[in-house]
Amino acid sequence: MLIVIVAVFGTTISPYLFFWQAAQEVEDVEADPNAHPLRQSPSEASVQLRRINIDTLVGMGFSNSIALFIIIATAATLHQSGVMDIQTSAQAAEALRPIAGRFAFLLFSLGIVGTGLLAIPVLAGSAAYAVAETFKWRRGLNRKLHEARGFYAIVAVATLGGIALTFSPIDPIKALFWSAVINGVISVPVLVVMMLLAANPKVMGKFVASRRLKFVGWLATAVMAAAVCAMFVA
User: Fold this and answer.
1) Is the distance from CB of 152 to CB of 128 less than 8 angstroms?
2) What is the dihedral sign for C-alpha 143, 22, 221, 3?
3) What is the 3-state secondary structure (H, E, C) of the chain?
4) What stretches in the chain show pLDDT beneath 50?
5) Residue 10, Cβ neighbours under 10 Å: how many?
6) Residue 69's Cα: distance from chain center in Å?
7) Which is nearest to 207 in space by CA: 28, 44, 58?
8) What pLDDT was estimated at residue 191?
9) Side-chain-side CA neighbours of residue 157 (13 Å)
10) What is the predicted pLDDT for the residue at 215?
11) Which pTM value belongs to this model?
12) pLDDT of residue 229
């Protein structure tokens, strides 16, 4: 049970989220000659932060709603029928049979393809941003291949690695589950660093996190850390 809780946390607050959105905001500033970092143009903060806030809330609302519907549909069909150990995509597709009938596998396949097309730029891209920023390479999807070879090399390696897993004997369902668990464990130190940076005026300038955000942020960090520690102890 504790492992499942950590896995849910890992899919909700994944480490790539800390890199992807921030890197995209920086890329937008670099691509627009009329845009400036908020520390240099604090007058633009209210508009830009409101946009980022709406973008984040809408994205979180959709993603968590979809996850909730998946859980409900699976519980009402597979679990109700006694299927509690899903090991293949075919078994997972059965959850759609009451609605889609004989088209359940087609609908599930289209969903998997759509998820893959969404995941390639986000997951591979966030990994590339993280590595490129660590080694101070040129990075950004707005750059051409010859301008950011290392960045695009990481994108290619991550994408090809995901494709290779498809042809390996690794159980895809278990791989997804354990990757979520790993994300939950890794998110804890990443959250700690993020909260320390958000509260540091040398980094944030006048845009340090408010008391409310600090409280919520540290609370989320403490809850995730407690879940991870309990999992390892158990």
Assistant:
1) yes
2) negative
3) CHHHHHHHHHHHCCHHHHHHHHHHHHHHHHHCCCCCCCCCCHHHHHHHHHHHHHHHHHHHHHHHHHHHHHHHHHHHHCHHHCCCCCCCHHHHHHHHHHHHHHHHHHHHHHHHHHHHHHHHHHHHHHHHHHHHHHCCCCCCCCCCHHHCHHHHHHHHHHHHHHHHHHCCCCCHHHHHHHHHHHHHHHHHHHHHHHHHHHCCHHHHHHHCCCHHHHHHHHHHHHHHHHHHHHHHHC
4) none
5) 24
6) 19
7) 44
8) 92
9) 10
10) 95
11) 0.74
12) 94
Other CB atoms within 10 A of residue 184 CB: 25
- Measured CA to CA, the distance from residue 50 to residue 217 in angstroms comes to 19
Kindly report, residue by residue over 101-116, the tens digit of the pLDDT: 888 888 888 887 887 7
Tell me: the pLDDT tens digits for 22-68? 777 777 777 777 777 777 777 777 888 888 889 888 988 988 888 88
Cα distance between residue 177 and residue 21, in whole Å: 24
User: For tokens 């695009």, what's the residue?
Assistant: 152
Among candidates 63, 50, 166, which has minimal Cα distance to 122? 63
- Burial class of 80 by CB neighbour count within 10 A (0 to 12, 13 to 18, 19+): exposed
Contact 108, 93 (CB under 8 A): yes
Cβ-contact 234, 9 below 8 angstroms: no
**pLDDT the model gives residue 85:** 74
| Radius of gyration for the alpha carbons in the chain, expressed in angstroms and rounded | 20
Domain parsing of the chain, residue ranges: 88-170
Residue that is written with structure tokens 């979180």 in the block: 60
Residue keyed to tokens 């299927």: 83
